[in-house]
Each structure stands twice: as structure tokens, then as C-alpha cells.
Design a protein that fits this description.
By secondary structure, the chain is an alpha+beta fold. It has 9 helices and 5 strands; from the N terminus they run ααββααααααβββα. It has a 5-stranded antiparallel β-sheet with strand order 2-1-5-4-3, with helices on both faces. Strand 1 and strand 2 form a beta hairpin. The longest helix is centred in the first third of the chain and has 14 residues. The two termini are 21 Å apart.
Length: 208
């Protein structure tokens, strides 16, 4: 699905044709009851639902315990892309910041098009507030975002965590689920989320 959206947007930009595009519609900020039920069932995994500009719409309690101390839930509404490029904490939180930034811009571009007025508003803002690190990525040749992978996160209470992620498309929104990538991160997440030891089993890349 994500690849089809990505190719459709590239075709629109190349031809100027008025193909179906999410840009004419406002971001879907409604959290459907089925999605709330899915988030409930994902506990104790850190998981969150985002709209296409990167706003956090809903999340598990475990995600709040993980992301809240990092500042990822600051703002009304919180926006992961804005945090990544403008919050001074972001580069310390994500040791591999450049790779995370590449991924977030790729995801942002894959779900929108150059005619998306809602994207344009965010792009104008971040081009001014974040400058070249954001603007140059937006101007680069689009790349498809990774749907699975791993990233390092430095938590003020638990230290460095290695987390796998899975991105699931949800009709104009996307759900991101995190799981520990090693035993140390699993134990740290159990402490953060106040769960019994072993509540989250590590999922190593290449073993899923």
C-alpha cells in the first residue's frame, strides 16, 4: 500500500495530472473505535497512531511512559516530525539522528504530495525553524520509507534502548509499534512501563 501511494505521488508530480491524492483532504485526526481497541490489545508494547503530517493521535500507556520523558508528547497536538527537527533534545534522544530524520521525511513524503496544502504548511514552518537539515531532505529525490527496522533511543531513566519498529498503514494514518531489540532493552522497558519482568520479549532484527 505504501509503495503504491509513493508511486502515485511521483506520477502526479511528474505529469501534473489530477490523480487521487490525500492533499485535497484534511489529515484524518479521528481515532476509530477499532484502532483504540487495537492499541489496548498492544499493551504493554509502546505503540502510537499518527496522521500523515506526523501528529500523535493516540497511544498506549507504555508509549506514554517511554516517549513522555523524551518530550515526544509535548505540544498540542504533539508532532514527531516537528520534535525531531526543532526540539534541542532530539539529537541526544536519537544517537542515529540523521538516519531517523531521513526516515521521518521519507514517511512524510510518501503519505502526501507536493500539492498537499496541509503538508505545505508544515514544510514552510520547518524550513524556517529547522533550516537546511529539514529543507535539504525535503528537496532530495524521494525515497520509500522503511516499514520495519531498529533505532536507538536514549531514555533519561533507562539509558540507551534498542527498539525495533513496525509501521502499519491505517487508511490515511499509520500505526507504529515498538518492541525491544535485545534483552537489556526488554528489561529496561519492563521497568519503564512498570510491568513484570519478561512482559516484553526481545525481537531481534532478522528473526521475526
Amino acid at each position: 500500500m505504501a509503495e503504491r501511494v509513493h508511486l502515485r505521488n511521483l506520477a502526479k508530480e511528474a505529469s501534473g495530472a489530477d490523480v487521487l491524492c490525500p492533499g485535497g483532504m484534511p489529515p484524518d485526526r479521528q481515532v476509530r473505535p477499532t484502532m483504540r481497541a487495537r492499541l489496548d490489545r498492544l499493551e504493554p508494547a509502546p505503540a502510537a497512531l499518527f496522521d500523515r503530517p506526523g501528529e500523535t493521535l493516540a497511544h498506549t500507556a507504555a508509549y506514554e511512559r517511554l516517549a513522555g520523558p523524551l518530550g515526544l508528547l509535548d505540544g498540542s497536538p504533539p508532532n514527531r516530525v516537528r520534535y525531531l527537527f526543532t526540539d534541542p533534545r532530539a539529537r541526544a534522544v536519537f544517537p542515529d539522528w540523521d538516519r531517523v530524520a531521513d526516515q521521518q521525511v521519507a514517511l512524510l513524503k510518501s503519505e502526501s504530495s507536493s500539492s498537499d496544502l496541509h503538508l505545505a504548511h508544515l514544510v514552510d514552518e520547518l524550513t524556517i525553524t529547522a533550516g537546511a537539515p529539514f529543507a535539504e531532505r525535503m528537496a532530495a529525490v524521494p525515497a520509500a520509507p522503511r516499514r520495519t527496522g531498529a533505532e536507538r533511543v536514549v531514555h533519561p531513566e533507562a539509558g540507551e534502548l534498542r527498539l525495533t519498529f513496525e509501521i502499519l498503514d491505517a487508511e490515511g494514518q499509520h500505526l507504529v509499534v515498538h518492541l525491544p531489540a535485545d534483552d537489556a532493552s526488554a528489561a529496561a522497558l519492563d521497568r519503564i512501563t512498570a510491568r513484570r519482568p519478561g512482559a516484553l520479549r526481545p525481537v531481534r532484527e532478522g528473526t521475526r
